[in-house]
Amino acid sequence: MLLAIEIGNSNLKLALFADTHLHAKWRLATKVHYTAVEQSIRLAESLLYRGLQPDQVTGCVISSVVPLVTPACIEFSRQYLNVEPVVVKPDLETGMGILYDDPAQLGVDRFADAVAAFHLYGAPLIAIDFGTATTFNVVNSAGDFAGGAIAPGLALVARSLERGVAQLPRIELTFPGRAIGTNTVAAMQSGLLYGYIGWVERLIWQLKDELAAEPKVIATGGLVSIIASHIKAIDIVNEDLTVEGLRLIWQIQQNHKKH
Length: 259
Prior knowledge:
Elements: E1 2-7, E2 11-18, E3 21-29, H1 36-49, E4 59-64, H2 70-79, E5 86-87, H3 108-121, E6 125-130, E7 133-139, E8 145-152, H4 154-164, H5 184-211, E9 216-220, H6 224-227, E10 236-237, H7 241-258
Parallel strand pairs: 1-4, 4-5, 6-9, 9-10
Antiparallel strand pairs: 1-2, 2-3, 6-7, 7-8
Helix pairs in contact: 1-2, 3-7
């Protein structure tokens, strides 16, 4: 089996693949202050909890946007799984050109989203990841990563509003049913959620206009289930897009080794 580890700002997202089949997936909170031993213990326990022994994992791929956690996950793969991991970087050969000014600055989660969307759905496309940040990742008609946009995620905006204004309460990220809120909570939900839809749709329109094409719009990320059904411009929802990208990148690297 292949173990994919996506190290995000809020969560470690783990997925097990049997060939191309997603066998299991789960999350652990990202703990930046944990030692390498502590990280390895909880990763190992999460596998054992699912009835998996280390020798059942024959491959490992890691992507990270939290550099402090990366070495511990690499060490876990080497010492516990006895597997040399593929650590995702934008300069890995995937068949996708990168038009970013400095490819080293491209977040590997954005890269994985683009690779997965391209291989699964073709180009041109816009892959939107509704996570801690909201990222818009554009692949042009030639199959190159053309760039995109980064904005605060919905939960981050909500927490900022609550912290910044003393009298506002913590709210659930659910739609209030109508835009005219008749109490503070409903008014906050309206402003956050309906407002968020508005700027997402406007940015999609702008990206399409600059791309001068009619791309597919694919959505993923931890908050996609809340927001995607309210945005008509979204064509496809794939909650597993990032880990599918990691699987594909790992497979491409294995194929290169054979040749």
